[in-house]
Amino acid sequence: MKKAFVVDFDGTITVKDVGFSIIQKFAGDGWKEIGDRWIKKEIGTSECGQKQWDLIKYNDEEIRDFASKFEINPGFKEFIDIIKKNSYKVVITSDGYDIYIKEILKQNGLEDLELSCNSAVYNKGWKLSFLNTDKECNLCGNCKKKVVEKLKDEGYEVYYIGDGHSDRCACVYADKIFAKSFLKQYCEEQNIPYYDFNTFYDVIKHM
């Protein structure tokens, strides 16, 4: 069977959560209260994201410069080498934003990878776009479940790799799950089978 790997970005491909770090460093007062409402599912990503990025008074060049210094997870480049060698499919799917994701991928020579994420454009303020929402749910800006389901419909065996709140819904539709942090906790609470991982060397062992 054809294999596809759906991979989260913040805290999965990167060691640290870049999107959260940007908000933490650049947003003005009030960002934490907005984020807490998102965690409690009182508001979705689109509302949370726009409200938080409205608090950022820095331009796109400053955000890219900050993002360029974040490290990717050990083993990720080797993981991609194996993907390409075996003609597997990989999709980076994130509820974060292209402004920093594309910068980090470019810094690491990985800009050719397929990417599904939200968009952030600066023009005297930040304008966010969410092009892959689920109208029935509307919690995430980028519905990762739709990405997994599309791959399943195309006949792929889907491996899901993630760590966060926005991975919980999508991962259960995959054939195999690699989880850490919040996603690992969720899988344990829901008795969902998963492989524990810290770096991508742990993922490579099961490929």
From TrEMBL:
It catalyses: O-phospho-D-serine + H2O = D-serine + phosphate; O-phospho-L-serine + H2O = L-serine + phosphate. Its EC number is 3.1.3.3. Its cofactor is Mg(2+). Coiled coil: none annotated. One of its GO terms (cellular component) is cytoplasm. One of its GO terms (biological process) is L-serine biosynthetic process. Belongs to the HAD-like hydrolase superfamily. SerB family. This is phosphoserine phosphatase.
